[in-house]
Specification:
Blueprint (H helix, E strand, L loop, with lengths): L1 E7 L4 H11 L6 E8 L5 H9 L2 E4 L8 H14 L4 E4 L8 H6 L4 E5 L14 H10 L3 E8 L9 E8 L6 H25 L3 E4 L2 E4 L1
Parallel strand pairs: 1-2, 1-4, 2-3, 4-5
Antiparallel strand pairs: 5-6, 6-7, 8-9
The structure holds 5-O-phosphono-beta-D-ribofuranosylamine (GRF).
5-O-phosphono-beta-D-ribofuranosylamine binds next to helix 1, strand 5 and helix 6.
């Protein structure tokens, strides 16, 4: 049984998709051990409580130094014997100590087809604003392993979503969530939980 920690900062719709997928059998061999947020007001924490999972608040603001926060986050993951860390709209930079300890065991959902519209400062609505400003006809979502860079880790799954005439960033964001994010993030977790994902250098092989 793959032990999951889901890290969140916002509304938690991707967390909800994971919880629903475990409940309806789309995800097998995995359980949510804890949901961790840096944001006390994150509705994702309410979703975790309603689901019956631990909802843990760990914010850099509550620690004297960033180093202390980093160590506390790593400790929280290790003492819960976490197998896979899932970033689902987590807006805190993952500390290198966590990345080293969980090499190829941290995944992230990004709301574009990486390498387009990603990297530092490109998150949330900014991603969709950039896609619309560039005039691309197709965007989508990407699930990737997390390495020391920003959105640079090996890509696990991608799903394209058509951009429609007169899309606003908000409308596009919602369509990408519904048609892509909420499908490929659970799918990636299920594949990892069932041993169907292997990393070979910078590429990922799926069985
Ligand atoms: C999603 O758009 C996701 O792609 C991005 O942050 C947003 C999180 O939304 N990483 P939610 O908190 O899962 O609703």
């Amino acid at each position: 049984m793959l032990r999951l920690a889901v890290l969140v900062s916002g509304g938690g719709t991707n967390l909800q998709a994971i919880m629903d997928s475990i409940d309806n059998g789309t995800i097998t061999n995995a359980e949510i051990v804890t949901v961790i947020s840096n944001n006390a007001g994150a509705y994702a924490l309410e979703r975790a409580k309603n689901y019956g999972a631990e909802a843990l608040l760990l914010s850099p603001k509550d620690f004297a130094t960033r180093e202390e926060f980093n160590e506390k986050l790593l400790e929280a993951l290790k003492e819960r014997n976490i197998d896979l860390v899932v970033l689902a709209g987590y807006l805190v930079v993952v500390p290198s100590c966590v990345i080293k300890e969980f090499e190829n065991r941290i995944i992230n959902i990004h709301p574009s087809l990486i390498p387009s519209f990603c990297g530092t400062g490109c998150y949330g609505l900014h991603v969709h604003e950039k896609a619309l400003a560039r005039g691309v006809k197709v965007s989508g979502a990407t699930v990737h392993f997390v390495d020391e860079g920003t959105d640079t880790g090996p890509i696990i799954l991608q799903k394209p979503v058509m951009i429609e005439q007169d899309d606003t960033p908000e409308v596009l964001q919602r369509r990408i969530m519904e048609q892509a994010e909420w499908k490929i993030l659970p799918q990636a977790i299920d594949m990892i939980a069932n041993g169907r994902v292997t990393v070979e250098g910078r590429t990922v092989r799926l069985k």
